[in-house]
Amino acid sequence: MAAKPPAGDPIQDAPEVTPPQRAAAGLPAVGHSLRIAHQQMGVRRTALTLLRVNQKDGFDCPGCAWPEPDKRHTAEFCENGAKAVAEEATLRRVTPDFFAAHPVADLATRSGYWLGQQGRLTQPMYLAEGAERYEPVSWDRAFDIVADELTALDSPDEAVFYTSGRTSNEAAFLYQLFVREFGTNNLPDCSNMCHESSGSALTETLGVGKGSVLLEDLYKADLIIVAGQNPGTNHPRMLSALEKAKAGGAKIISVNPLPEAGLERFKNPQNARGIAGGGTSLTDLFLHIRLGGDQALFRLLNKLVLEASDSASGAGEGAIDEEFIREHTHGFEEFAAAARAADWDETLRATGLDRADIDRALAMVLASKRTIVCWAMGLTQHKHSVPTIREVVNFLLLRGNIGRPGAGVCPVRGHSNVQGDRTMGIFERPAPAFLDALEREFGFAPPREHGFDVVRAIRALRDGQAKVFFAMGGNFVAASPDTEVTEAAMRAARLTVHVSTKLNRSHAVTGTRALILPTLGRTERDLQGDGPQFVTVEDSMGMVHASRGRLEPASSHLLSEPAIVCRLARRVLGPESHTPWEEFEKDYGRIRDRIAAVVPGFEDFNDRVSDPAGFALPHAPRDSRSFPTATGKANFTAAPVEYPKVPEGRLLLQTLRSHDQYNTTIYGLDDRYRGIKNGRRVVLVHPEDAQELGLADGSYTDLVSEWTDGTERRATGFRVIHYPTARGCAASYYPETNVLVPLDATADTSNTPASKSVVVRLEQTPPA
Ligand SMILES: Nc1nc2c(c(=O)[nH]1)N[C@H]1C(S)=C(S)[C@@H](COP(=O)(O)OP(=O)(O)OC[C@H]3O[C@@H](n4cnc5c(=O)[nH]c(N)nc54)[C@H](O)[C@@H]3O)O[C@H]1N2
Ligand SMILES: Nc1nc2c(c(=O)[nH]1)N[C@H]1C(S)=C(S)[C@@H](COP(=O)(O)OP(=O)(O)OC[C@H]3O[C@@H](n4cnc5c(=O)[nH]c(N)nc54)[C@H](O)[C@@H]3O)O[C@H]1N2
Ligand SMILES: [Mo]
């Protein structure tokens, strides 16, 4: 299996490399974001739009899920938020003429970057069976086509309904309601590829699959551990929060195979020191860990904390919180026995760290009364991600760091409303209580059998078990693992439908028939029958607030996501549905009333969301140290320690984001902090590994992934860059490397693709 760089693009892959930077943000970041915004939107629209981002009467940034501080700056956005806004608010348009000029076969040769640069989608488009081009279609006809295919299925379970994490609470609630009235729980979402491992681990151990800290907690913490996350790029506003935490005396440990610039030093463009001075040094201790070594690290720290508590005097005094453990936890003895058995040598092998690093970390852990652990994809996308995150929970429970100010778990979410979508019921394995509430409120019997997650949906499409694929946003084909398998699966479908704002690869790799349904973005005015509407979102810390777009929609043909669901539901379900779809479409307040009746924590939703600051959803462990788990307590766990074993002559590859992309959306070709420009087919390798493998800096290589079943997958033509990554660990950008991630390589329990631990062989390409 091989994937070549897309042909037919004006952009050639010719990477240029300079040394990585050691600080993030500051004035260059502002300049860079304004340049991109001006290119896409012009000067006036840039000013008008960017001033509305994350303001109390404005729209929620479509970038990441980091929360808004209560006191907002006039410009409460970051460089990458500005790019996300510019991408959506661009003045460029994809019209029917564009589709007439570009047959699907041509679109399929284009890079994601080129497709995105064409601008906003403007009209519903239909690709008929055997046709070469998409043609304009009316909304009514488009809904007829979907309804005909859905009603022709032998079972509702032959349809798959994907969601990406930008969908608002209102749209997500309606979407899952429609899908369940139609009769299936096949609701995979981007979460399956993202924080599913966090959800699995936290639900089992704490009873709530979400983070337990609020923004204020960061400011009160003594110690913040940031593991497996690159906030300088992916959650830049988090750097301001870390800066403030440091000003309050917090220490920061970052745990990462890469020395990410944002975590080293931060020049806040919103204060004078950041603009003119050297900025704030953020990381006090950098643990240059090997990929997948985190479970071993936390296990050893747990052992050392237990041993410190044994000494029972001096530094060890109160090393563990005995009262909390007694009152609130379950499984301590078994956990403690496993932790005490942790082995130094094995830990040093798994982590690549030295003893002195771990001793320093331990001293900081013991000195801290309030500890928070933040993490993202570096912890969630490995085979043993769920036990890794459970070990983080053990680590926090041991010293009572859950359910009090300045302490807790902080999985930092990706998409701006990915957490809210789950709260609204976008889940292939819904809780029975949620289905009971739906049944009570809407008077139908929702399906109870679990549906397909992302990986299972791909298998079902591949094997002909699923025949219709419908996506509410996202770019399923490019974001999912095992690109060739996924593309073949998609081509096997009878109908593929995408509700989208921008063109992407999923529109070019289609089923027998395909539809593109263009929709409003966050930045745009949403006018419905009963007047202007707003929507709501939930951030990474469980705060819910309103989002109002102000811009003129990109085209008069666009429908909002709620309107699309309502019209589709009426057409598919017909008079048998007693749900007031027409009313919902006219007035989103009526959707919120029903959310209030179904989803715990949303009582008086319409009233409470009128507070511009929004409101916090309840979180039992945080609010009252109560744990809705099977045991009624917070659960310690004792899984065996795992870490990736890499055969001789191979490297472990992580697939990650550059500074100039949003998942599969490529904004530009400048991974500024890492010093990599004008090309994305690069592989970062430690200089000593490169030397052992005979890979000169600047040479070209193929990446060949080797899966346990003996199959190989190949991505060709990557420029080698000698880079200070941990020994044995390489890094390349996603989505180009998704071709290397086997569909079956997933995390235990959560089934999340293990896209941060791909075993690869580097095969040098002879000079042309
Ligand atoms: N600008 C921008 N913002 C984004 C996104 C974007 O693409 N662009 N994507 C959004 C989404 S959906 C998400 S989920 C988040 C993603 O946010 P991140 O998780 O920060 O994204 P990645 O680029 O995947 O970076 C993973 C980080 O973890 C490190 N890492 C990898 N493996 C390991 C490991 O085994 N152990 C440890 N300790 N570290 C490891 C990597 O070196 C890297 O620093 O960002 C969101 N925000
Ligand atoms: N190898 C590898 N694979 C990964 C990852 C990795 O780190 N490595 N990360 C995984 C993660 S964390 C995630 S979250 C997934 C992301 O997977 P997805 O969420 O499926 O992908 P995105 O690239 O975020 O989707 C971008 C598209 O969303 C559409 N869009 C944007 N805004 C809106 C909107 O408001 N409404 C609608 N309807 N559409 C909109 C646009 O058409 C755009 O092209 O990828 C996963 N895949
Ligand atoms: Mo994500």
From TrEMBL:
Pfam families: Molybdopterin, Molydop_binding. Residues 120-498 form the Molybdopterin oxidoreductase domain. Residues 651-758 form the Molybdopterin dinucleotide-binding domain. GO terms for cellular component: membrane. GO terms for molecular function: 4 iron, 4 sulfur cluster binding; formate dehydrogenase (NAD+) activity; molybdenum ion binding; molybdopterin cofactor binding. InterPro entries: Asp_de-COase-like_dom_sf (IPR009010), MopB_CT_YdeP (IPR037951), MoPterin_dinucl-bd_dom (IPR006657), Mopterin_OxRdtase (IPR006656), Mopterin_OxRdtse_a_bac (IPR010046), Prok_molybdopt-oxidoreductase (IPR050123), YdeP_MopB (IPR041953). It comes from the Bacteria. Residues 1-22 are annotated as: Disordered. The keyword Mitochondrion does not apply. Its cofactor is Mo-bis(molybdopterin guanine dinucleotide); [4Fe-4S] cluster. Keywords: 4Fe-4S, Iron, Iron-sulfur, Metal-binding, Molybdenum, Oxidoreductase. Belongs to the prokaryotic molybdopterin-containing oxidoreductase family. This is Formate dehydrogenase. The lineage of its organism: Bacteria, Bacillati, Actinomycetota, Actinomycetes, Kitasatosporales.
